[in-house]
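Hi Y.,

Following your request, here is the sequence exactly as I used it, all 148 residues.
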Amino acid sequence: MSFRGFSFKGPNSSSGMGVSEDCRPTFLELQGKRAHRYIIFKIDEKKREIVVEKTGEPAEGYETFIAALPENDCRYAVFDFDFMSSENVPKSKIFFIAWTPSTARVRPRMLYATSKERFKRELDGFHYEIQATDPAEMDVEVLKERAR
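Below is the corresponding structure, written out as C-alpha cells. Let me know if you'd prefer a different format.
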C-alpha cells in the first residue's frame, strides 16, 4: 500500500525468513537421486535466510541424524526413511521434521515457527511432517508408526 510517497507492508506480507537457493536443489537430490539420507537446515540470521547446514550420506542411519541435531537450538530437517511394509516390501518415505526443543531460546523458536510454512512450500514433495520439542517425539518408532 502506498500513501503520498510512503510504502507500507501488510502485517503478514513478509513473515519468516528467505530461503537460500541451494535448499531446493539439495532436497531434490535427496528426493530423486537419493544422494543424501538427510538434510539439516538452519536459519542464518545474518543472511536472513534458511540455509543447508549438513547433509548425511545415504548409508548413514537415523541415530547419526538425531546426533547431528543440536540439543538446545532449532532446526528444520528432512529424512529419507526406509522401512519394510506390512507386505514385506521395502519402501521409503520422506519426513519433514521441525525440531524446536523446549530448551531453545524464545527468539529462535519464534523465528522457526514463523518461517516454517513458507519453507515447507519450497520443499514440496515430503510425505509426513513431525513437530518435535523433545527427542521422544521423533523417535524411530514414531516414524515407523506414521509411515505405515
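DSSP finds four helices and eight strands in the chain.

Thanks again,
Q.
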